[in-house]
Every structure is written in C-alpha cells, then in structure tokens.
Design a protein that fits this description.
By secondary structure, this protein is mostly beta strands. The protein has five helices and 49 strands.
Length: 574
C-alpha cells in the first residue's frame, strides 16, 4: 500500500450495512448522522463524534472509534428507544444517507417490538431487551410511566396466555383483576401491577408501560414455592404483614416484599411443639379465632398440648428471653423439687417430683434460695462445696430487680455464661491436680440443669419482643440428695413463718418450702455448763450422746467438792 492509499484510508469513513456514525460541523456545530452502506470522506470542516448517553453530551473520537452498530431486536425482543422523533417526521435515518436530525421528543421513550433494526439520530439512545418468558413460579412487576401513551398503545401489548399444568385463567393480575379487565381509568401514571407466570407465559410491554427490574437488575422475578409445612411473610409498604402457608406458589402484590431473616432466607418452617414445650407470644392487634376474641396487649403461652404445629400470624409477636424462643419443661425427679414464684403476687410454691415442670413465662419464674452465711454453715457443716455455691448465689443478689427478693434462673445462667470461658482454663489445671482416687461426689457449685433449656429453634416472626430474663434452668433445692440430707441418727426441726413446726428424723432427704427454715439450738460447750459459752447447731443426735460436765457441790460440813460426771444421753419423743 502506497502513501496515497494510507492517506485516503485515514480520511475515509467506510460504513457497512447495520452501521452508522455521527459527524459534527466545525462551523455550525450541527451533528449529522451517516448510515451505511456508504463511504464518507472526512474534510477539515467536520470531525467524527459519538453521543455519551450517561453524560448527555457529544464527544470527539478517532475515525476508528466513530463506527457504531445499529440496535438489533430479533423476534421475541423489543427496543426501548429514548428521545424518539416527533410525529410526522422521518421515524429513523434511512440507509445509505447523510441526514440532519429531526426534532426529537426529549425525555420520552417508546417500545418497539422486534424484529427491528435502525440507526439512531443524534441524542438518541436505545436498549435491546429480551421478551419476558415466564415459568409458573415467576412473575413481572410492570409500571405505567406514560398514561397517555399507555392508553393509546394498550391493545398493542404482546402477551401469550399460559397453558398446561399450573396455568390459571386470565392475564396479569393487579388490584382490579386481570390485564384484560383493566380500563383506561385504571391506567394512571405510577400504577403497578403483577404479571404472574401462572397466567402469562410471554410478555412484551407497549409504549407507556415498563417492566421494573429488581435490585440486581433482573426483570423476571422468582416467586416463592412453598411446600407443605412451610410458610413465608409478605411485608407491605404500609407495614401490614401477610403470612402465607404452603403448599402453594406465592406472588407478592406490587407494594409487597418478601421478609428475609438474618441469613437471607425467606421460606420458613413452623414451630413444632410437644406437650412439654411452649412459646410465648404477645397479641399486637385484636382478632377473633373460633369463639374467642383476643385483645391487643394480651399475652399467650402456646404449648404443644393444644397446638402441636404452630404457624405464626400477623397479630402475634414472639417474646424472646435472652434471644431464646422455645421454652422446655424441666425434669423434676422423685425426691427433688423446684421453687416457682408467681410474678404477679410474689407467692412462692414448691413443685415436687416426679413431674415435668413447664413454667408459664407470663406468670411463673423458677427461683433459687440464698442462705445466710450462718445458715449455710449450720445446715451443711464442713461442706465447702455448699459454701461456694451459696456464695455464688449471694454475689448475684445486688444485681437482681428490686421487685424480687430471690435469685432467678436467668441471673444464674447469665453469670455462668460470663465466667465459662475463664473457668474453662482453670478447670483444666484443676483436673490435673485432682485426687483420682477420691470418692467424694463432685458437682459444680452453680452448674446448669441440662434437663431444661431454652432454644432459639422457632419459626421466623416479623415482630419480636426481647426480654432479658431467662429462667428455664431450674436446679435442685437446698436440701437434696446432692448434699446428703438429714444424717442417720440425727433429727432436725423444720419451722415456718406461721409458727408451724415438724421434726424430721434421718436418714431422710428434706425438701423445704421457701418460707421454711431449720430451728437453731444453742448447746453449751464449756464446763460447768452455762449460757456463757454456746455453739449453735441444727442437727440433734438422737442416741449415744456423750455429755461431760463439772458439778460443784458442798457437803454438810461445808466442804466444796468438784465432781466430774459423764452421761450417755438418748433423745426420745417429739
């Protein structure tokens, strides 16, 4: 190739079929469109440009970059054209020509169904969109953006009704019914309607109607397919919630969205309950179910006895305790008991085993009894484990609510959670130095009762209440088999605040009511016996008590004699 050919190549713009280019006159500033097939010799009075749709301005380019492809919409596609020409002017540039642009309808757009291809006028831009094919579990959200154009072109809608399994009669449904039933009065700017895949298998919007993409830019959206024992939650723009149960395909209304949990899931399973499980819910809107009406603010404790499978409803809000939703019953073995306090009256009752204790969180709370230091020493003499356990409970007393005089299970559990990581390392060192041959029973001073726990395994709720009080970790009472009870050959006197009393003779495990305590005796330890030096005790030895004393006597002839005496004392009767 000689130098002349190279020079001609640099100044000639060759366009093939389906190509076009823009040139701008340096003297007038006007922009013309050149469509192929043709060859244009670029002179010094013009230069190639392209239109930047994002910045809405023309930009000068090299000759190699000036060539642009005409938008092409095959069969089943459509072109979304912005800034169409005014009515009565040339619709689009003709092939093989160089033309000045007509007046354009700036800011407007039209939808042109394929097959179609054409060059663009300056300041026009277009987007080729595939026609929307829908399966039975898919849908579109359509919106009216131009009321007059939508009314004029409504009958030009490209729509194919669905047929076969899963198809429904009618077209795309909105608030007023199917698309065929929509009147001109319904076609208002901003109106949205849903096009379901169960009713329409293919759709292309007319001018004045657009298909709204989702957050990820996809036009076709996935409906939720719910199986049996599944549900989803639809949240409306006005805050209303709609709980849908399977089996079914769920299509939201234009103003609704699917509720998603923290992991992004939108399909949930109901809460399975048995007779010893329950969930706590609060009524946030009045409703009637069966013959009973429920008022706003009322609280319900739903157990598996009446509701084995619980599906949430919009009038219910789940009440969680420390993030836990499901309440489990507590196993109370025979010979053991739990203290249960009425939260409304403060009355504390003792629940004795064997039983499965499922406390109603609305009115009941399991509490632990804290002994004074003197009581702990008298009731469990020499028992360091009992002392540590009682001290741990006593440390929680300053943190309890002022309305409660005892320590709840929730406070104990939160204390355990805070110290578990620290104790884990200490326990490893203690285990290495422990006496492997010891037969003394080992137990954690404030350990958890694994027979009952809270669980977060509950279905999703769009509304929840968080309450900082877990109390489903009940524990054995103060006098139980863990601490040996009343020893063989000893007796204790149990008294209450009403003045009632009874004597318990060992060997026996004694379960105290919350207002009961052990009668304290004062035993003289000095010689001769007197009230000056005494030792408190609650355990009375019944047989073979060895008692020593000094008796000071004076004979008839006034001689003082000190007698050392010893007695073997047995206690009989009540």
């Amino acid at each position: 190739m000689n130098d002349a050919s190279r020079k001609m190549k640099k100044t000639d713009l060759v366009l093939s079929n389906g190509e076009y280019a823009f040139t701008q006159d340096t003297t007038t500033g006007s922009v013309k469109v050149l469509t192929g097939p043709t060859v244009l010799n670029i002179t010094g009075q013009e230069y190639p440009v392209i239109y930047d749709a994002e910045r809405r301005q023309f930009r000068a380019v090299d000759l190699e970059e000036a060539t642009q492809q005409c938008p092409l919409a095959p069969q089943g596609y459509y072109i979304e054209l912005w800034n169409p020409p005014e009515s009565g002017t040339a619709p689009q540039p003709s092939e093989g020509s160089k033309e000045n642009p007509p007046r354009l309808l700036m800011g407007q757009r039209v939808n042109i169904a394929g097959p179609a291809t054409f060059a663009l006028w300056p300041q026009q831009y277009a987007k080729v969109i595939s026609g929307h094919h829908l399966r039975s579990n898919q849908y579109l959200v359509a919106r009216i953006y131009d009321e007059e154009a939508a009314k004029e072109n409504w009958k030009k809608t490209v729509l194919k009704s669905a047929s076969g399994p899963g198809a429904e009669a009618g077209g795309a449904t909105g608030a007023e019914g199917t698309i065929a039933e929509l009147t001109e009065d319904d076609l208002t700017v901003g109106k949205q309607f849903i096009i379901k895949g169960t009713e329409v298998s293919f759709y292309m919007p007319p001018t004045g109607v657009e298909v709204v993409p989702d957050e990820e830019g996809r036009y076709v959206r996935e409906a939720l397919t719910l199986e049996r024992l599944q549900y989803c939650i639809l949240v409306d723009e006005n805050g209303d919630k709609d709980y849908q149960r399977g089996p079914r395909v769920v299509f939201p209304r234009p103003t609704q969205r699917f509720y998603r949990d923290g992991s992004g899931g939108s399909v949930f399973r109901p809460t399975e309950l048995n007779p010893i499980q329950g969930i706590h819910v609060k009524v946030i809107a009045p409703y009637t179910e069966g013959e009973r009406s429920y008022a706003e603010g009322e609280e319900l404790f739903i157990t598996g006895r009446d509701t084995p499978i619980y599906f949430p409803r919009p009038e219910h809000a789940l009440v969680k305790y420390d993030g836990s939703a499901k309440h489990f019953a507590t196993a109370v073995p025979e010979g053991e008991a739990r203290y249960v306090m009425d939260r409304n009256t403060g009355e504390i009752r003792t629940v004795r085993g064997p039983t499965m204790l499922l406390c109603d969180p609305r009115t009941e709370v399991v509490v632990r009894r804290v002994l004074t230091e003197q009581q702990c020493g008298l009731w469990y003499p020499g028992n360091e484990e009992a002392k540590r356990y009682n001290e741990a409970l006593g440390a929680l007393l300053p943190r309890r609510p002022s309305t409660r005089a005892s320590v709840s299970e929730g406070e104990v559990r939160r204390s355990l959670d805070k110290g578990r990581a620290k104790d884990r390392g200490a326990d490893k060192g203690a285990d290495k130095g422990a006496d492997k041959g010891s037969t003394k029973p080992q137990a954690k001073a404030t350990g958890e009762d694994q027979s009952s726990v809270h669980s977060a395994a509950a279905g999703a709720f769009a509304d929840e209440w968080q309450r900082m009080a877990t109390y489903s970790q009940p524990r054995t009472l103060t006098l139980d088999t863990k601490f040996s009870g009343v020893w063989d050959g000893y007796a204790v006197m149990v008294v209450d605040k009403r003045g009632d009393r009874r004597v318990e003779v060992g060997p026996k495990d004694v379960l105290l009511e919350y207002d009961q305590t052990l009668q304290v005796m004062e035993l003289s330890t000095g010689q001769p016996k007197s009230a000056a030096v005494t030792e408190p005790a609650v355990y009375l030895r019944l047989r073979d008590n060895h008692v020593e004393d000094e008796l000071v006597v004076v004979t008839s002839d006034h001689v003082e004699v000190v007698l050392h005496v010893a007695f073997g004392v047995d206690v009989v009767g009540d």
